[in-house]
Design brief:
With 91 residues, the protein is of the alpha+beta class. It is built from three helices and five strands, in the order E-E-H-E-E-H-H-E. A hairpin with a 2-residue loop joins strand 3 and strand 4.
């Protein structure tokens, strides 16, 4: 099955997903992440994951890459495009 990733504002084939050499996360390890469970096609505890992501970003004085509502749309669309019924989303 074709896997899809969301990178730098675009949905791309997983095997074409890449981080730019000048990315701060790549160069300096600036970053936070969340792993969200998908169960029966639903992202489990999404609000709690986004709250924790917000707290982590604030602690590191980092901006959201996109707004919270937009990120939720991106995550849901990525789950849909990958036809994930039961699995994980890593962001």
């Amino acid at each position: 099955m074709l896997r899809i990733a969301y990178v730098n504002g675009r949905y791309v084939r997983h095997d074409n997903a890449a981080v730019h050499i000048e990315d701060r996360g790549y160069q300096f390890a600036d970053g936070v992440y969340e792993v969200c469970e998908v169960k029966h096609g639903v992202i489990v505890d999404m609000t709690r994951h986004l709250d924790r992501l917000d707290r982590s970003l604030r602690e590191l004085r980092m901006d959201w890459p996109v707004g919270r509502a937009a990120l939720l749309v991106i995550i849901r669309e990525t789950v849909t495009r990958n036809r994930v019924v039961n699995g994980m989303v890593y962001l």
